[in-house]
Amino acid sequence: MTSRERILDGAARAFGRLGYARTRVEDVLNAADVSRPTFYKEFSSADDVFETLARLHFRELSKRLVDALESTGDPSGKLFAIVDAYFRWRSELGPLGRVLDVEARQPRSALARIRRPVTERLVEAFREQIVALGRPAPDPLLLGALISAAEHLGDTLPSDRAPTAREMTRRRIAMLRLAAGVLMPLEPERKRRRR
């Protein structure tokens, strides 16, 4: 394992245990068992290593969702695959993932800048898939709301143990129902005739 990998591994444990605001470089040094000069050869600060962990975290999410999109040609299968991949990823996050997720949703956080392009790519990927099915492109605001709903449902997964099959199924069903409602085109209102 390289020094950089040891630092990232130690930082993941330190941030997962202490949270973002309470983790200092000293905590990372102790968890990684590296010297201060070794740390500073690789990273400029605790924030720098935290942002690196966040980039890796969101890169993994993007990869899983793209793989899910490409896993089947069936439109409803794609939706199920994406929802399933997202909740599986969330259930595997562990303490660091939860800290990263919470911090990334803070509007003024440095991690929000990292999360935003991932969210924008997801919205665009969803729009492209829907248009490819011959349906009208949905409002990006609605797709963003779906992503927020998925994040909220992911937040309700247990953090102290692996979720049960029932807990995962409930979240998948809830998300699929929300998605079906958002993706179903609204019928134009019929004008009532005056008699």
Main structural class: mainly alpha
Mean pLDDT, all residues: 86
What is the overall silhouette?
Answer: elongated
Described by strand count, sense and barrel closure, the largest sheet is:
none
Radius of gyration: 20 Å
Number of strands: 0
Top CATH class of the largest domain:
Mainly Alpha
Description of the structure:
The chain starts with a helix and ends in a 12-residue tail after the last helix. The model has no long low-confidence stretch (mean pLDDT 86). It has helices spanning 3-18, 25-32, 36-42, 46-70, 75-91, 94-104, 110-132, 140-155, 165-183. With 195 residues, it is an all-alpha fold. The chain folds into two domains: 1-43, Homeodomain-like (Arc Repressor Mutant, subunit A, Orthogonal Bundle); 47-183, Tetracycline Repressor, domain 2 (Orthogonal Bundle).
Explain the layout of strands and helices.
Blueprint: H1 3-18, H2 25-32, H3 36-42, H4 46-70, H5 75-91, H6 94-104, H7 110-132, H8 140-155, H9 165-183
Helix pairs in contact: 1-2, 1-4, 1-6, 4-5, 4-7, 5-9, 7-8, 8-9
Give a brief description.
The protein is mainly alpha-helical and 195 residues long. It has 9 helices and no strands.
What descriptors fit this protein?
195 residues, mainly alpha, Arc Repressor Mutant, subunit A, Tetracycline Repressor, domain 2, 9 helices
